[in-house]
Amino acid sequence: MSTSSSSAKDRNLLAVIGDEDSITGLLLAGIGHINEQQKKNFLVVDAKTQISSIESAFQEFTERKDIAILLINQHIAEKIRPTVDKYQQAFPALLEIPSKDHPYDPSKDSVLKRVQKLFGD
């Protein structure tokens, strides 16, 4: 039990995969971090960003032991939907967020779908 609780205590960062506006706002709010290995806790996605880069950042962020919550713009999550839907871990928690140009659509949110399935909705 102490192993799981100590690992949860070590998770103190947010990570973000998002568009430039979302990342900029969150960085201004103070979530930016670069560790000793020069790894950032955010990925700015634009039209030129390859899907493989998004997937590798998603894998990296979900495997890191210092990240508690992974925020991802919903329209970017749609690009890697099979990977996002496959993710089942409690930590880091995965939250799909809206962006300035793409409103939130609850019918596409993988976490919300799982909750609705549990409650039989």
UniProtKB/TrEMBL annotation:
UniProt KW keywords: Hydrogen ion transport, Ion transport, Membrane, Transport, Vacuole
Look up keyword Transcription and say if it applies: no
Question: Where mainly located?
Answer: membrane
Query: Which species is this record about?
Result: Rickenella mellea
Q: Where are the transmembrane segments?
A: none
The name on file for this protein is V-type proton ATPase subunit F
The record's PANTHER family line, in alphabetical order, gives: V-TYPE PROTON ATPASE SUBUNIT F, VACUOLAR ATP SYNTHASE SUBUNIT F
| Location relative to the cell | Vacuole membrane
